[in-house]
Amino acid sequence: MKPLCMCLCSCLLAIAPVHAAAQDKVTNYELRQAWASEPGDDATFALEPRYFIPDELPGASVDDTGAVYLCDKLSEALVKLGPGGHQVFAVGQVGEGPEDHSGAGEPVLWGSGKMARADCSTSPKVIVYSSGGEFLESYNLDFDGQLARLFWNGTHGLAATFRNKFAPPDAFEFSTHLLLLDGRGSVLQDRTLRSKRVVRAKSMPESSMWDVPRMAVSDDGFCFIQNDLYGNVIECLDRDLKPLWTITGPWQPSTRTPEELAEAQAIGVTGLEYSAVNQTIRRMVARTGGEVWVQPWRPGVVDGVVEFASFGRDGQVLGAVRIAGLPKLSGDWILRGNKVLWITSDEVPTIIVYDLVATSR
Q1: The whole model's pTM is what?
Q2: Residue 149 has pLDDT above 60, yes or no
Q3: Residue 169: is the preceding peptide bond cis (ω within 30°)?
């Protein structure tokens, strides 16, 4: 019979190469342009500025066919653009009717064959359309607070909300919540993400302003949340908001370069003490089957290539994901399914849709 220490060493030697192989695995993708808007197309629009929302393109989305949806601040409509940038429909307006909205919006793919516009006002609601732009229904969201983000997890709506109440004599009680909604906007679950007391002051640290967590939600019910944007923990919830596992990554805040600090200061919020460090994560993408891709803040895009860390069930490291072919253009982008939507930051923005194509696994 082998001594216990020899058995343990044999087991460790057997396991270690498997773990190392997962760490070293790289899956490669490339972007292939599907279509791009051209000058003169129906692509003159402006997205609503949504400061301190940790997202790449708030107010825009792309579906599996490559169609683009925009909450346009110029026309105050939900706009659908087809291949080439031509307008398929523009629906909705500011007002008090069932199809109207009064606040900033966010397009959400709302189940099979449906599209929704979130009304992120003090009287939040969801306005639902068919994929062809026909108004179907709207309903008020039955909760106390303001809507920040709205998602669809395959069966239910998920709302990220915040509540801000005056606490005499000189403070506010602030809390952020994740709500599970039924098909009529009623709250089924209310999960508090964070709660704090803020004393009124002439200035405030920038880190205190990031009250909405970074979130990624998959169509098969997995919800990933980074609650502390300067931390390294991501929590995974199931479709009923029950905790499944946590991911603890190697990410740490990096010192801002002069260019990054100038970009942050360009937001121009009075009385804000801008941070000397960046957040830890730049982008988080929920895939199917409990997989999530996480892009650290640094190094960003290098020579048209971006790298994500891939995590699976139970927070298991699956390896790295590299995507090549990103354009050298100013602007920002989102990845949804196998489509990438890129919108430039030009005065007249260019919209580009790419297919995400695997080149090796």
Answers
A1: 0.90
A2: yes
A3: yes
